[in-house]
Structure formats: structure tokens, C-alpha cells
């Protein structure tokens, strides 16, 4: 196994060795250059993967939230809001499954009902459901030309997805009515916030709502959605420690941290993402400044090459040698800052773990290079392939495609069942777990498709991808012709960047010099 790290240590530099998984053991394969015909074969494999996963959901689980692939049944584990369907309406457009898109959008119009006796998680429901509804609406309307939809593509559409998103967001507004502006984590869809609801919020949950709420404000002309989501972010940021670090759990009444540890993985991750992407989408420089401050602290205290270690926000010292699989997204933010070297060093480290187990375990110890007991599962997450996509976008390096190929092989060989794709309970023995989360289709499949489709419209730079991989159109007001904030963002001076990223025709961005 020792050679595996070396193999991935070299993957950005030309000729490479990559691993091939077969059953429970791995063998090596040399020369991973991806020929054009192989790229097309792999892309078709991803399309088939999405189609099979989606059809399995429809057959066995619809209209429940999620598919249980081993039981071949559905479960309303997220409030019964048709989560996998809604989270994947835009995925249907992205995969050019146009007739399925129209059929299920029309069905949704008659089935969507939020007058149910259920409590839902505001963060998860916002990124999956509100995000899914809004991005599909935008692709269908404002962005239809970019997406290549004909004028008469869907004449029956009259804005229903936007109305559903607004209806749901309106139910969430009472949760923001707290002294700090930091919202409650969950809300009952009919009765509002329960009197027994927890007063402790996690940073990511409370601070990852702006792309969705802000887009809703832009589309409805009512600023209140943007305002509550933005206020929550400002409030979280205002509680940064003297070192500029934010804890993971905070009291929403008195603003005290209840868990004085920070990191780029679970409970904090997407807060940083939405500061940067919020700027890219809405052009608010306050968001960029907050991001730069957080990012500088992360680079000063957390970055222990090639890992970002969880750290005490007061002492500024590392508290753990455990990495969460969620942290594997962070190289994508480094890419957006132009920090290619850091991004690829960090990404390579995660890839070495991926290579070792054929999957990235939920948490692993970087000293023992082993999964943490009880956290050795792989729930079909996208983060590693998300960073791989951004690096590919930025560098066009075809060697990155070997990761994409290995991802497809791993998913096909290890997680495919007769009823969709299944999570893995333990990466040591690849035992299956009975769940296909909606993000497998909406994120994992999307990032793999993008990586294999260099002429995809996503590379136009006109969209910011949400933390659930929903594309949000950069509003025309924040762009002039070909100049979009996402490209301006890539020129941001204090993002530790020393290079200029330029839009190029084929692969998106080209980089010359690296940090
Ligand atoms: C399974 O992995 C092998 C390599 O071990 C690969 O050749 C094969 O194509 C994979 N199967 C599928 C269905 O992708
Ligand atoms: C699917 O699950 C539901 C409730 O969770 C149950 O009532 C039903 O019998 C299950 N169907 C199958 C085929 O197991
Ligand atoms: C709502 O559900 C709870 C339990 O989940 C139950 O105790 C309560 O009676 C239900 N309320 C109504 C109005 O059905
Ligand atoms: C976290 O640090 C703050 C000071 O910034 C302190 O007031 C608080 O008690 C600490 N919380 C915990 C749980 O240690």
C-alpha cells in the first residue's frame, strides 16, 4: 500500500500511476492519460449512473424524501418534502433529461404541501429544497439561453417553483427572530419554532443560507430574505475570537461560543463558502472582507500542510489529528482564491486516503492513516470530487481526470445495488448501508459529469454553485457583458493570490503562476 501515496503525490505532474479497485483489494494501473474516447465512455457511464439512481428513487421511494436502496423502499427522513426529487430537478436539466424534468415539475405542482405536522432542519431544507426549486426556476427562465433551452421548451411553466420556494422560506422567517439574529436550527412547518427548540446553533447551519435567501430576494424584489440571512452571517462573524477564529457552536441568545473549536469540516465548512460565494453572487464587498479575515486566520492557524487541523479559537493551537471527509471541499475555495498550490497539495492528501480505501471515510486519523472508529462510513459524498472539478476548471490538467475515473469505478464496483446506489458503512470492508442521500445525485453525479464535459455551460462562469451544487445565475446587475463577479472574485487582491486566472475557451480558467 505504501506506493499509493506516492502515486497520488504525483498525479498533477504528468505521467501517473493510478489505482484500480477490484472487489476489496487494489491493483495498480500505469499510464492514466485519458484519451478522448475514454472520456466519452466515462461521461456516458456517469449519465447512466444518474439515470439509474434517479429511476430507482422514482420506482422505489417517490414521493418519499430518500431512497433506501437495500430495502428498495423510501423514507421521509427529512420532513416529507420530496427532498430527492426537488434536490434533483435542476440535475435533470443538467443531465439533459428534459422530459423527466417537465413531467416531475408538473407532478410536483400538485403534490407540494408544506402544511404538514413536521419539524424540519432549516439549513438542510434550505440548501436542498429551496435551493433546488430556485435554481431550477432560474435555469428555466433567466438562464434558459445559457442552458440552451428552446423558447418553447416548457410553455406550461408559470413560476410555480419560485412560488414554492417563497412559501417555504416564509415559514422559516420566524426562526430568525432571535436577539443575535442567528437563527434556530429547526422549525415546525405549521406551528413555528417549538418552545423546546435548542438555543444552540452550529456555525455552518446558521451561516449557509445567503445564496438561497438572497436569490429569493432578488427574484421576488423583497429584501427581507437576503437581510435575515446576511444578518446571521454578520452576527456569527462579529463573535470571532481575538485570533479571528469562529467556534462551531454558538448560543443564539447571548452569542457565546459553546464549542470553542474551529475547522473547515463539519459544522463550520459552508459558512466560509457562503461568505466567498455570497460575494461572487451579490457583489457585497463586506462579505469578501469577512471571508478574507476568516481565510487569513485559517491559513495562519489551521493549515498544517497538507491538512487543515481543527483548532482552539482562543489558543490558536491544533486540537485534533482527525480530518473529516467534509473538509475535502476546502481546496475548491482555495482554487476560487487562486491558491493553486495549496489547493492541489491539500487535494492530493485527501486523494491519498481515497486511494487507500477506495472511498473517503467520514473521519480519519492522519497520524494512523486510519478511519476513526465509528466514523468509517462513506455516505456517497461529493466533496473530494467537487475540489477535483474546481482544480480541473482552474488548470485543465487532464491528470485530474484519473480521480474522476477512479471515483466512477469505485461507485460502480462498490456501491451499486439492484435498487440504486448505497452508502458504505465501513470503508475497511465495504459493507453497505441502506441509504442513498439526495446529494449523491445532485452533487456527486453533477461534479463527475462536469469534470468529464469540458464544454459544459457551467464553465461559462455565469453561475455560482451552491453548497448543494445548485447553479445560481450571477445577476445581470452585477455583471457587464462578459464580466462577472466570479471572475472579479478570482482577481481579489487579498485572497493570498499571486496569479491571474483567465477565462479560456475550453477548460474554463487557465493559470500561469501559482502561490
Ligand atoms: C470496476 O473497476 C474496474 C477496475 O478494477 C474497472 O475496470 C471497471 O470498469 C469497473 N466497473 C465499472 C462498472 O465501472
Ligand atoms: C416501505 O416502508 C413503508 C413504511 O416505512 C412500509 O409500510 C412498507 O411496507 C415498505 N414497503 C416494502 C415493500 O417493504
Ligand atoms: C403532530 O405530531 C405529533 C407527534 O409527532 C403528535 O403528537 C401530534 O398529535 C400531531 N399533531 C397533529 C395536529 O396531528
Ligand atoms: C469559549 O471562549 C469564551 C471566550 O472567548 C469563553 O467565554 C467561553 O466560556 C468558552 N466556552 C467554552 C465552552 O469553553
Automatic annotation (TrEMBL):
Binding residues for Ca(2+): 467
Cofactor names: Ca(2+)
Entry keywords, A to Z: Calcium, Endoplasmic reticulum, Glycoprotein, Glycosidase, Hydrolase, Metal-binding, Signal
Pfam families: Glyco_hydro_47 (PF01532)
GO molecular function, one term: mannosyl-oligosaccharide 1,2-alpha-mannosidase activity
Signal peptide start and end residues: 1-22
SUPFAM superfamilies: Seven-hairpin glycosidases
Entry's EC annotation: 3.2.1.-
Active site: 124, 269, 362, 383
InterPro entries membership: 6hp_glycosidase-like_sf, EDEM1/2/3, Glyco_hydro_47, Seven-hairpin_glycosidases
Domain of life: Eukaryota
GO biological process: carbohydrate metabolic process; endoplasmic reticulum mannose trimming
GO cellular component: endoplasmic reticulum quality control compartment; membrane
Family statement: Belongs to the glycosyl hydrolase 47 family.
Identification of the protein by name: alpha-1,2-Mannosidase
Organism: Galdieria partita
Lineage start: Eukaryota, Rhodophyta, Bangiophyceae, Galdieriales, Galdieriaceae
Amino acid at each position: 500500500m505504501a506506493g499509493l501515496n506516492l502515486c497520488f503525490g504525483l498525479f498533477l505532474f504528468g505521467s501517473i500511476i493510478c489505482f484500480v479497485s477490484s472487489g476489496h483489494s487494489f491493483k495498480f494501473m500505469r499510464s492514466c492519460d485519458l484519451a478522448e474516447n475514454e472520456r466519452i465512455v466515462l461521461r456516458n457511464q456517469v449519465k447512466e449512473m444518474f439515470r439509474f439512481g434517479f429511476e430507482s428513487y422514482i420506482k422505489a421511494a417517490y414521493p418519499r424524501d430518500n431512497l433506501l436502496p437495500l430495502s428498495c423502499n423510501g423514507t421521509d427522513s427529512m420532513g416529507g418534502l420530496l427532498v430527492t426529487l426537488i434536490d434533483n430537478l435542476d440535475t435533470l436539466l443538467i443531465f439533459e433529461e428534459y422530459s423527466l424534468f417537465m413531467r416531475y415539475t408538473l407532478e410536483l405542482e400538485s403534490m407540494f404541501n408544506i402544511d404538514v405536522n413536521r419539524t424540519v432542519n432549516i439549513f438542510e431544507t434550505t440548501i436542498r429544497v429551496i435551493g433546488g426549486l430556485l435554481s431550477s426556476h432560474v435555469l428555466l427562465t433567466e438562464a434558459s439561453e445559457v442552458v440552451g433551452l428552446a423558447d418553447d421548451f416548457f410553455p406550461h411553466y408559470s413560476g410555480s417553483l419560485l412560488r414554492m420556494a417563497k412559501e417555504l422560506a416564509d415559514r422559516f422567517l420566524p426562526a430568525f427572530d432571535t436577539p443575535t439574529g442567528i437563527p434556530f436550527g429547526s422549525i415546525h412547518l405549521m406551528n413555528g419554532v417549538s418552545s423546546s427548540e435548542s438555543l444552540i446553533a452550529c456555525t455552518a447551519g446558521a451561516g449557509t443560507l445567503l445564496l438561497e435567501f438572497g436569490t429569493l430576494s432578488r427574484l421576488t424584489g423583497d429584501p427581507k430574505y437576503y437581510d435575515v440571512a446576511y444578518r446571521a452571517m454578520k452576527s456569527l462573524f462579529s463573535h470571532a475570537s481575538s485570533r479571528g477564529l469562529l467556534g462551531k457552536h454558538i448560543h443564539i441568545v447571548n452569542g457565546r461560543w459553546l464549542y470553542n473549536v474551529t475547522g473547515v469540516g463539519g459544522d463550520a465548512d459552508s459558512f466560509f463558502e457562503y461568505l466567498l460565494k455570497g460575494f461572487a453572487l451579490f457583489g457585497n464587498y463586506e462579505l469578501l472582507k469577512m471571508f478574507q479575515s476568516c481565510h487569513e486566520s485559517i491559513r495562519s492557524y489551521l493549515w498544517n500542510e497538507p491538512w487543515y487541523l481543527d483548532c482552539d479559537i482562543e489558543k490558536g493551537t491544533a486540537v485534533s489529528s482527525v480530518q473529516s471527509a467534509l473538509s475535502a471541499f476546502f481546496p475548491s475555495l482555495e482554487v476560487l482564491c487562486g491558491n493553486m498550490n495549496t489547493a492541489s497539495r491539500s487535494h492530493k492528501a485527501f486523494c491519498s486516503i481515497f486511494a487507500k480505501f477506495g472511498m473517503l471515510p467520514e473521519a480519519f486519523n492522519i497520524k494512523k492513516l486510519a478511519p476513526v472508529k465509528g466514523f468509517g462510513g462513506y455516505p456517497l459524498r461529493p466533496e473530494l470530487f467537487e475540489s477535483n472539478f474546481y482544480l480541473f476548471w482552474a488548470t485543465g490538467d487532464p491528470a485530474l481526470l484519473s480521480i474522476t475515473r477512479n471515483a466512477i469505478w469505485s461507485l460502480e464496483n462498490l456501491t451499486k445495488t439492484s435498487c440504486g446506489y448505497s452508502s458504505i458503512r465501513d470503508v475497511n470492508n465495504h459493507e453497505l448501508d441502506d441509504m442513498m442521500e439526495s446529494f449523491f445525485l445532485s452533487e456527486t453525479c453533477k461534479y463527475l459529469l462536469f469534470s468529464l464535459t469540458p464544454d459544459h455551460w457551467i464553465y461559462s462562469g455565469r453561475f455560482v454553485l451552491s453548497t448543494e451544487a445548485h447553479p445560481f445565475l450571477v445577476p445581470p446587475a452585477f455583471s457587464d457583458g462578459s464580466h462577472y463577479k466570479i471572475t472579479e472574485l478570482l482577481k481579489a487582491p487579498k485572497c493570498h493570490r499571486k496569479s491571474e486566472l483567465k477565462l479560456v475557451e475550453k477548460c474554463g480558467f487557465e493559470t500561469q503562476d501559482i502561490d
